[in-house]
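Dear colleagues,

As part of the handover before I leave the project, I'm documenting each prediction I ran so the next person doesn't have to rerun anything. This entry is a single chain, and its sequence is reproduced below.
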Amino acid sequence: MAVRTLAPARQTRKRTDPRPKGAIVLGGDYRGLGIVRNLGRRGIPIWVVKDRHTVAAHSRYVDRVIDWSSGTDEDRATRLQALGRQVIPGYWALFPTTDQMTAVVARNHERLSEYFAVTTDRPDVIEIGQDKRKTHDLAAANGVCFPETWLPQNLREVEALVLDYPVIIKPAVKDRSNPLTHDKAWRVGSHNELLRQYQVACRLLPAEQIMVQDMIPGDGRFQLSYAGVMDSGTPVAEVVAKRLRQYPSDFGLHSTFVVSIDDPEVEAAGRRIAATLAYTGLIEIEFKRDPRDLSLNLLDINTRVWGWHTIGLRAGVDFVHVNRQLLQGEKIVPMRVPEGESWMRFLTDCLTSMGEVRRGTMPVGRYLRSLLRRHDAAILGMDDPWPAILDAPMMAYLQWKRALL
């Protein structure tokens, strides 16, 4: 793909116009692709800083691609500062798409704000979203349930736990990349397996960052989200949604088929949490309804763009564009995505659905009917075909590389 490179601008540290002129997307996966297309179709110049994911880098709307697949977090922060000081033509918006890059931007919020419109909220707020222990404290303070959780400090304390299995092992902090943070959680079916997996986890993370948690039963249909753009805790664009399917089907690293719904309990809980944080910017708050007692449990707070953020496009709700308008100081009429809008990532949804069909948990007819719905596609774009053409081989390559580790 030919890449159109913008000419370097004269070095400057002063901004005569504080409104962002372009956007830098930090991450090359399908979340980043959604940002690229939403802003690129409006004629906004886009640069992509790619990591191991590259699908966004192949969009026709990308003006320049930068490869930062190697280097430390401090290296990335220094490179970003250098971009703003020496290369970027004017004042641009920063859109991190991963937890790791969100943490990098948050920790360096002050120095990066000198050169960029930083879409990431205050560092203390981001930390609450990225540290599950603080997330749980926030839930308790707002009268919201969360899964029963244990925080053992060593193997001896794990040995003493008396649990009803299955449970999960998961990281308390998700600002670094390793097999446990990538997998999101490990399912554990017995006490002996818990001891083995805990010792593996201790080789990846400090013991105080490893959580043992009750595994709430149910697939993605019990997983619900409140998401949108906030202005000091007040929603200016919002949606409530349900994951009808996810990949993998148990923990759902990625949503594959999402539908907007009307759920007042989810909306109220999400709004309450955002208001307590006085949050500004893009946010997704994930819940799971426990089928055992129907309680609504807080799972995650994603303080960045989320995977299915383009679900509202056909209804006229473009969350990324709204966030950019907020950065520019424009007055925004509050909006929401109506019930019944849908989003699909076809390739991973096909893998998930075929597995459910083989196990007999989903009739073929239900899957085919879902394909006939009008939905926003995560990868396919008739005006931008290359990402969809390259998605399958790139995914196969990443799976192959992961299998070699």
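The domain at 148-214 is CATH 3.30.1490 (Dna Ligase; domain 1). The chain has 14 helices and 17 strands.

All the best with the project,
I.
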